Amino acid sequence: MTKQYKLLTPGPLTTTQTVKEHMLEDRCTWDDAYKNLTQTIRQNLLEIAEANPETYTTVLQQGSGSFVVESVLQTALSEKDHVLIISNGAYGNRMIEMAQRINKRVTAVKVDFENIPDFQQVEAVVQDNPSITHIAMVHCETTTGILNPLLPFTEIAEKYNLITIVDAMSSFGGIPIHVEELNIDYLISSANKCIQGVPGFGFVIAKQATLNNTKGNAQSLALDLYDQWQTMEQDKGKWRYTSPTHVVAAFHQALIELDKEGGVEARYNRYRELNEYLRKHLSEIGFEPYIEDANQSPIITTFLYPYETFDFNDFYQKMKEVGFILYPGKLMDTPSFRIGNIGDLEIEDLYNLIGNIRKYLLEEAE
Ligand SMILES: *Cc1c(COP(=O)(O)O)cnc(C)c1O
């Protein structure tokens, strides 16, 4: 065995030994057993989303999470459509850039990274632009760890009859989301985040009636979510083109382990406890979070440097030597770094981490 670090990152993250072991078998993409694996995954994801299989569907798509976001933008938006994208971080900004690059009609509402969006302002933009047909937002903005509330977002969509796109990449499976109750049209996530699989594909929980209207919208063949859906439905679990078979098998095992843990609610509670523990003990030794408590997600936290001469690269190396991989910050003007607390982690791991951080600070102060 090679050295197994604890990845305190928002994915790829630390997976269990058993999830990794399920990648030891080679599988065929056209074989019934493999196709059944895909079908089981699709059904399980609908259960996690609390979405009715009569009205919702799951489409799996090769690539990292961004490929799936792009496939949704490609497919959901026709030439006549107009999407409003709310952004308070790098992933919201990436969605805006994608929509622009692929020549979709887009209006951006960009807000400060440390704040949740002002939904009155969002509503005013919708009122000023009657051509808007779709509205998109990131749920947990992994850039900072801020959690954007879904309810005011879906309420605007309901009021103005807009189709909703939610990037729940870093929250789905780790925070309960009632997709059907919220009437979300497209919810996007990926294999290597809160479900605790390995990277290689993402998925969309989509309202069937909405997806059914998107035939011919995509100007990309490989990223056409409608075509992908049709093949998966008609061929009962067959992916278009080669699928990441080992990753799919690992993901299937990760879903079994999520269920064994007690489902999303139990996982949410574990993540929340880990996050609270981390923030409490780090704040005691001088690390202040960037996001205020009320808006902080239980997934990942941005911490400010504890003192001006703090050398993150040195800190990173020292923590790596004792088995922990931390995550650099993604803020332009504020020196910061991030600690993710999702994956196969327990309080004991964070206890060890904090002990090592204390030791580091003492040595630095000498
Ligand atoms: C991880 C993530 C993505 C996708 O990133 P990839 O590197 O393409 O997997 C998109 N949005 C959010 C909020 C994420 O956390």
TrEMBL record:
The keyword Transferase applies. InterPro entries: Aminotrans_V_dom, NH2EtPonate_pyrv_transaminase, PyrdxlP-dep_Trfase, PyrdxlP-dep_Trfase_major, PyrdxlP-dep_Trfase_small, SP_NH2Trfase/AEP_transaminase. Keywords: Aminotransferase, Pyridoxal phosphate, Pyruvate, Transferase. The keyword Lipid biosynthesis does not apply. Residues 39-315 form the Aminotransferase class V domain. It comes from the Bacteria. Pfam families: Aminotran_5. The modification N6-(pyridoxal phosphate)lysine is found at K193. Its EC number is 2.6.1.37. It catalyses: (2-aminoethyl)phosphonate + pyruvate = phosphonoacetaldehyde + L-alanine. SUPFAM superfamilies: PLP-dependent transferases (SSF53383). Its cofactor is pyridoxal 5'-phosphate. PANTHER family: 2-AMINOETHYLPHOSPHONATE--PYRUVATE TRANSAMINASE (PTHR42778:SF1). Involved in phosphonate degradation. Homodimer. NCBIfam families: PhnW-AepZ, PRK13479.1, transamin_PhnW. Belongs to the class-V pyridoxal-phosphate-dependent aminotransferase family. PhnW subfamily. This is 2-aminoethylphosphonate--pyruvate transaminase.
